[in-house]
Amino acid sequence: MPTVYHPDVVIIGGGILGCAIARYLSKTPDLGVVVVERHRLGEQTTSHAAALLTRVRTHRALTDMAMETFRVIDELGDTQSEPLPLKKVGSLQVSAKAEGWRQIEQTAQRAAESGVCAELVSTNEAMQLAPWLELSSDTSALWVPDDGYIDPYTLCLAYAADARRNGARILLKRTVSELLRKGSKVTGVRLENGETISAGTVIDAAGPWSTALAMQAGIHLGMAPVRSHYWISAPHPRITTNGPMTILPDSGAYARPEVGGLLFGLRDPQSVVAHPNALPDNLHGFRFDTDPTGDLALESGYEALRSQLPALDELQLAHYVSNVSSYTPDGFALLGPMPGVEGFIAATGCSGAGIGMSGGIGRLVAELATNQSPFVTPEPFRPDRFGAIDSYSPDFIRRCAEARARKRTG
Which Pfam families match (predicted)? Predict the structure, then answer.
């Protein structure tokens, strides 16, 4: 006979968001929590992320959520034999354009309001911090010394380990085939092997697969699978191992050291998307139909990036990493219950910020699921904020893609 589980909460997806949510939920006494993952933990979108961790964001709630991630990284490190490998190399944001200057000024102001250490530095100081840059005298530069990056897979496993220590159960190699719904209430999930998990709350943290999964229950999530990608060069003498993350809004790019080389990402001028119902079960080896090797994106963005990073001409590219990010039209995640549907909570659409926001997302979703007072306002993340939509509409998918193309914050 197929096994029937009866936890209080079932989380679909064992990526970094699912594991972070499980970790926070597991702190609630006597709450049964089950995570279902059809592969291994963190091996799909999580493990391919560039994992830039910046404290200061475009909205106060986002800043508070990002700072929660830094806080929990320290806390998780205390539960292990050694601290988590957070590389606190700082972030350097530079711009020689008026729009970028405004972004830097706003970031500096938000840092001051949030008590985050940040300082404007000269172009010479900026180039000393990041020797691979060459900046004009009219460049504005902001230095945030406590930012950094982390191996996302390691952080994901640390969330999961803490959740397990607190009693959460994680089921691997199990595929959710169906959301179970009775009237207006989602009552659990059915697995491909016939097992059933009945739960008071179902949390959809299935990353880019969340949309197709929710559609089974008639729920339209406002997000689409959009390409994110980066390149890694071979080691080069101008790339200092402990150099900072550099955010380059003028070219829509970011860069940071990686094993002696440079990791850098570029925004696609016209974002590359996939249909939410056309993703394979396993993303290993997956390539988008448009520009599958990233060559066209690199060519279109090369000159703009080269204007501030002329060392690009000297770098030998060693790796190209293409991944799937779940973008919403406004770049804010989908977090919380869907009005009119009981027992269902969305925890997806992280818009390229899933690693850096994982602690804040985990905490907020856990608080919403257990009817606690949320530590940040959940209003910007309401899953119904786009009104009546069709998740599979080409026009709506295009709106999501445009959010990726507009992003200038790394």
Answer: DAO (PF01266)
